[in-house]
Amino acid sequence: MKSFLTLFSILILTHFSTKAQDFTFGAIDYDEFSFDKNKIDSNANAVVLKEFGTARLQIDDATGSLVLIYDYHVKIKIYNKEGFSQANIVVPLYKDGNRQEYLRDLKASTFNWVNGNPVESVMDKKALFEENRSKYTTLTKFTLPNIKDGSIIEYRYNVQSPLLFNFRQWDFQSDIPKVNSEYVAFIPANYNYNVVLRGFYKLSDQKSEINRECLRINGVNIDCSKMTYIMKNVLAFVEEDYMTAASNFKSAMYFELSDVQMLNGSKQNYTKDWKSVDYDLISEKRLGSQMKRKDLFKDLMPEILTNTTDDLSKAKAVYNYIKKQIKWNNYYGKYSEESIKNALDTRFGNVADINLSLISALSAANLDAEAVILSTRDNGNVNKLYPVISEFNYLVAKVNIGTESYLLDATDPLLPFGLLPLRCINGQGRVINLKKPSYWIDLKAAQKSTTSYVLTGKLGDDGKIKGLLTSTTVGYAAFNRRKEIKKYNSIDEFVEKLDESLPKLSIKNHEILKVDSVEFPLIESYEVEFAVYDGAKKEQLFINPFFINRIAKNPFNLNERTYPVDLGSVSDERIVININLPDKYEMVEKPKDMAIGLPNGGGRYLLQSTVSDNQLSLNQMLQFNKAIYSSDEYLYLKEFYSKIIQNQKTDLIIKSTK
Questions:
Q1: Which CATH code for domain 274-442?
Q2: Is 636 helix (H, G, I), strand (E, B) or coil?
Q3: Top-level CATH class of 449-656?
Q4: Coiled-coil annotation: which residues (predicted)?
Q5: CATH class in words for 2-269
């Protein structure tokens, strides 16, 4: 659910001072210590009792420039040890070139109820330290002292930021419930922000008021709109498997700068249309200019294109060449850090360096190549109503061959042609063409994730099954498996660790094919051995046939999920087991044969096992025919998994009839 507000629609009501209704630090009473979490969430380990924040623009006395001042104040009740982590605070501070944010005026204390009175433990300043996460982010961390069951922690701080475009977002929802969350934004009348409320919950209250002469710039007094947003009794946001960025779904207030009315009467637009953004990106020396560098590859093309016969083979040859030439430095980006020439010379670069090089090389091979800017799954969805370039954090290549188009990311040597990494499968991307208007494109998995296992074996007189287990993987299943194998120094080391992770099964020999031939399925073959006698009665065999990818835990445990289930791609897993038995065995007990499905053809699970002509056969299939399931389909998925898990708890028992 989204709500859209604009500052031009605010009714200016009355004159208010800039002092918003913050609460007094350290004013802890018995009612707060005795707060009953059942009023909001009986399962909560901690609860935000009060949370208050303000944001405003002011002139920095030291530099004379306009900065954003953000004040944050919170009081949290901790109920048990599982809630102690709330006392470990991390505040990210961002950098953009020489501009950076600073944290100031930190005050933090823990309060415990002792002999009928609150006792304060003030945090020592030595508990504060900084961690340089990247060249763009510094993490300020601190831990409150003397945490016990029933403690109340309280802290407040101030952040000064030169980054004005996104003002300061406010998260009404977090990983613990909140009794009251209030945010007040003071926005100068000459600044127009688009204000967006994301998430499932609506505001409990909001107010729009005027604050006279809140800002003075070059001798001119400017009024502000005082905007108050309140949410009460907000449940915790619980993250589960198979979701994109939590920021897509948490209830939060976002601000994006649209335009500024300058004091000389002119207007500076920050929210543009795609036509003007296209021009900016094509003219940008770190993006459009790099797409034009065909000259860097012109002399190399004859060698790169050796033995190619058509445009598709040419594109694959260029793609494989770039994958080998530049190593990814693990930084995302839609802009080249320096230039693709520098990346080629140093053989090192960020995402954009690599994929802009790929686009230029494809163009040098006379192929139709374009750039696609996107937002990764952990970065959140982009605004589709108007261009906000800061929301895009990644760039890939698109090559058009005949009637087909292929999306390419050359950052990982194990990615086959046409398969984007899962981090890129997130809604839509914007295609940037040097000669045509930009347009949206769906970011979908080009291949489904396919896995098949075949075990052919024989039960010997020693009570052991010996046989050959072969697995074949395609798409993301193969990519992920190759990544796992490559973590080790050799295939032998990988198999050794695999053998250790399978206590009931012993690997005697192995062969793994096509590890580096990423365009082909990955094939793994293992000679295996495992015992099935119960140790007392040799005539009775206990076999759990679900030793291959057994589903032991339901990934879906919420009573309700307000955001979709995003698997990334459709998938198909099949398991076939055939075991030759000695003469005269019959099935005594087995998992129930199943054929269950999800509504509207969304997926299915099939299981069938038989003993016939001294051969045990088991066939299992698990299919998910959609990459994304809506929140309305969540309970069907939950029940689907529950039925499979329950059935897989049953052993297969075979008894000799001799």
A1: 3.10.620.30
A2: helix
A3: mainly beta
A4: none
A5: mainly beta
Using the predicted structure, report yes or no on whether residue 538 has a pLDDT greater than 70: no
Residue 313's H or E segment, with its range, is: helix 311-325
Give the model's pLDDT for residue 533.
64
Q: According to DSSP H, which parts of 432-505 are helical?
A: 476-486, 491-500
Helix or strand (DSSP H, E) at 646? helix 634-647
234 within 8 A of 178, measured Cβ to Cβ: yes
C-alpha–C-alpha distance, residues 545 and 576, integer Å: 10
In sequence order, the β-bridge partners of residue 603 are: 598, 624
What are the distances in angstroms from CA 208 to CA 34, 184, 204? 35, 10, 14
Cα 179 from Cα 535, distance rounded (Å): 58
More confident residue, 18 or 294: 294
Average pLDDT over the chain, rounded to whole?
Answer: 91
Confidence of residue 536 (pLDDT cuts 50, 70, 90): low
Which residues belong to CATH 2.60.120.1130 in the chain?
449-656
Among candidates 88, 51, 87, which has minimal Cα distance to 71?
A: 51
Q: Which residue has the tokens 């407040």?
A: 156
Who contacts 498 (Cβ-Cβ below 8 Å, separation ≥6)? 507
Q: Which residue type sits at 460?
A: G
Cβ proximity of 246 and 49 under 8 Å: no
CATH 3.10.620.30 location in the chain:
274-442
pLDDT digits (tens, 9 = 90+) for 470-486: 999 999 999 999 999 99
Whether 291 shows a pLDDT value over 60: the answer reads yes
